[in-house]
């Protein structure tokens, strides 16, 4: 699955790809924090979606980790929410009993400049993190689904709308199989899409047949670039002083095929 993202682009880069896009609110990016976005913090991220009232593309801050619209007790749902960070592409249309099928028409795009994934090395105690991004695209867009729930404000008790999203994953390609090679959800990767399919994903006229075609898309390994980075799940600074997304040399690390 995918629980670590990076977003180092300016918001103007989103506008360059979607010239008519509208912002629901003022969005300010803390680039130190967005260099490594951790799913389990349920933090907010600027998400692209099609507004149902005006049918225009909008940007709105949404929390990572879907809260289903029927949830009334957020605290009781907290443990289950971890299971809502990612959605398997196979279940969006293929499992009519899933929540993902219910919100299949609430499609969104997650702007990122890269993701992180961990590789298991035989006889090593720690996994090696890698930074992965799409070649020739400083900014790219991962497909997702979003949800809107009404929950009581913890301070006032008044009901307020909470917007949240999930990131869609699929079976890994040849490159990602080598990196994401361990754990319960090994051999998975985000549903990387070329720009034309990403834009089609948030088209309201997208029918089920075409949606399934997009869900089946496998990004060729040759279209992705990756390199090892220093440990990302730590509060310690890198020993070389460089940022988290920059290459790091692990002594004795075997190269990917």
Strand-helix topology:
Blueprint: E1 4-6, H1 11-17, E2 22-23, H2 31-34, E3 37-38, E4 44-50, E5 57-64, H3 74-81, E6 86-88, H4 89-92, H5 99-102, E7 107-112, E8 114-119, E9 128-134, E10 140-152, E11 159-171, H6 174-179, E12 188-190, H7 195-201, H8 208-215, E13 224-228
Parallel strand pairs: 2-5, 5-11, 6-11
Antiparallel strand pairs: 1-3, 1-8, 4-5, 4-7, 7-10, 8-9, 9-13, 10-11, 11-12
Task: Provide an overview of this structure.
The protein has a domain at 4-114 and 138-171 and 190-221: hypothetical protein yedk fold, CATH 3.90.1680. The longest helix has 8 residues, at 74-81. The protein contains 8 helices and 13 strands. The two termini are 21 Å apart. The protein has a 5-stranded antiparallel sheet with strand order 3-1-8-9-13. Strands 4-5-11-10-7 form a 5-stranded mixed β-barrel. A hairpin with a 6-residue loop joins strand 4 and strand 5 (57-64). The protein is α+β, with helices and mostly antiparallel strands and 257 residues long.
Short description:
This protein has 257 residues and is an alpha+beta fold. It has helices spanning 11-17, 31-34, 74-81, 89-92, 99-102, 174-179, 195-201, 208-215, and strands at residues 4-6, 22-23, 37-38, 44-50, 57-64, 86-88, 107-112, 114-119, 128-134, 140-152, 159-171, 188-190, 224-228.
Superfamily (CATH H level) name of the domain at 4-114 and 138-171 and 190-221: SOS response associated peptidase-like
Radius of gyration: 18 Å
| Poorly predicted segments | none
Number of strands: 13
| Tally of separate helices | 8
Give me the CATH architecture of the domain at 4-114 and 138-171 and 190-221, please: Alpha-Beta Complex
What's the CATH topology name of the domain at 4-114 and 138-171 and 190-221? hypothetical protein yedk fold
**What can be said about the biggest beta sheet?**
5 strands, antiparallel
């Amino acid at each position: 699955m995918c629980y670590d993202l990076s977003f180092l682009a300016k918001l103007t880069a989103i506008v360059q790809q979607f010239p008519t896009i509208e912002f629901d609110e003022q969005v300010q990016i803390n680039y130190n924090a967005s260099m490594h976005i951790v799913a389990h913090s349920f933090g907010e991220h600027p998400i692209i979606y099609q507004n149902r009232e005006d049918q225009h593309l909008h940007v709105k801050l949404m929390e990572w980790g879907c809260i289903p619209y029927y949830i009334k007790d957020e605290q009781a749902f907290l443990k289950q929410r971890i299971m809502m960070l990612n959605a398997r592409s196979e279940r969006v249309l293929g499992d009519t009993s899933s929540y993902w099928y219910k919100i299949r028409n609430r499609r969104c795009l997650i702007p990122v400049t890269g993701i992180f994934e961990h590789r298991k090395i035989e006889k090593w105690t720690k996994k090696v993190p890698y930074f992965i991004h799409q070649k020739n695209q400083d900014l790219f867009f991962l497909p997702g689904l979003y949800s809107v729930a009404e929950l009581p404000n913890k301070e006032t008790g008044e009901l307020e709308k909470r917007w949240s999203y999930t990131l869609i994953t699929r079976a890994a390609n040849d490159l990602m199989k080598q990196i994401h090679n361990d754990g319960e959800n090994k051999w998975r990767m985000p549903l990387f899409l070329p720009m034309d399919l990403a834009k089609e994903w948030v088209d309201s006229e997208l029918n089920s047949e075409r949606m399934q075609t997009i869900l089946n898309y496998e990004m060729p390994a040759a279209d992705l670039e990756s390199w090892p980075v220093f440990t990302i799940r730590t509060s310690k600074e890198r020993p070389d002083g460089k940022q988290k997304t920059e290459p790091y040399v692990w002594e004795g690390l075997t190269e990917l095929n």
